[in-house]
Amino acid sequence: MPVAVYGHYGFVLLLVPTAAADFLEYERFGLIDSIRPFIDEGKLKVYSVNSINNDSWLNNQAHPKHKTWTHNQFNYYIYDEVIPFIKNTSGHDTPIIVSGASFGALHSMNLFLKRPDLINGVMAMSGVYDLTEYTKGHYDDDVYFNSPQHYLPNLTDHSSLEQIRRSQHIHIFSGSGPYEDPNASRSFASILYSKGINYELDIWGSEWPHDWNTWRTVYPHYLATRF
User: Fold this and answer.
1) Are 173 and 126 in contact (CB under 8 A)?
2) H/E element holding 22?
């Protein structure tokens, strides 16, 4: 699958699309332009990947088992193909922060929590972290193990937890305007707290809806103040 790359130096921001979108979504909706000054000054290098949601949870014609298989294939693609590509083109020691908005927030959090040895942190924007919000009633082990709201409370592997706890960049953002679900962010943050994981929960007001203007504002603000 294609990957869009922006910039030459800095830490890596790995962007995961929202719902049914593609690797150019963040450029098309002006988010890349909103963070362009940080890219041009060498603070970060952006890699934007394709989505598989149209072939998995948003594909109403597919069998649930096919949807979970496709979701898992996406995870393997990120770990086995995208991450090596990033390391080969940006350096093996360059920090990688994965990020996405809406459905991309769930994917980003899931990718980080599963492989904190490969990914150094996460910025999750306007997400819910319960995969059953998208599975139309289907629930099995594959759903469980891709739903951070479900598996994180039961994560007991000391090595994995310690790697997650070492991250200085677990940022959870939500607005409180139309179509946002700040309680989903609060609920997931409470799980992180119960596991002794450091995080930032940042809830903005009712003037910030689930939309691109919000994310075009939040991303440059975070890059200026958190990194």
Assistant:
1) yes
2) none
Number of other residues whose CB lies within 10 A of the CB of residue 211? 17
Tell me which residues of the chain have a pLDDT lower than 50: none
The pLDDT value given to residue 59: 81
Pair 181, 128: CB distance under 8 Å: yes
* Model pLDDT, residue 163: 97
Closest by Cα among 45, 145, 41 to 97: 45
How far apart (Å, rounded) are the C-alpha atoms in residues 187 and 174?
12
Report residue 75 CA to chain centroid gap.
12
Return the DSSP state at 50: P
Distance (Å, whole) CA 213 – CA 191: 29
DSSP one-letter string for 136-169? TT---HHHHTT-HHHHGGG---HHHHHHHHT-S-
Indicate yes or no: pTM above 0.70. yes
CATH number of this structure's domain 3-225: 3.40.50.1820
- Please name the helix (run of DSSP H) or strand (run of DSSP E) that holds residue 208, with its range, or none: none
Place of tokens 């991250």: 167
The answer for residues whose C-beta is within 8 angstroms of residue 49's C-beta and 6 or more apart is: 1, 3, 14, 15, 16, 17, 23, 78, 82
Q: What residue ranges do the domains of the chain occupy?
A: 3-225
Cβ–Cβ < 8 Å for 54, 72: no
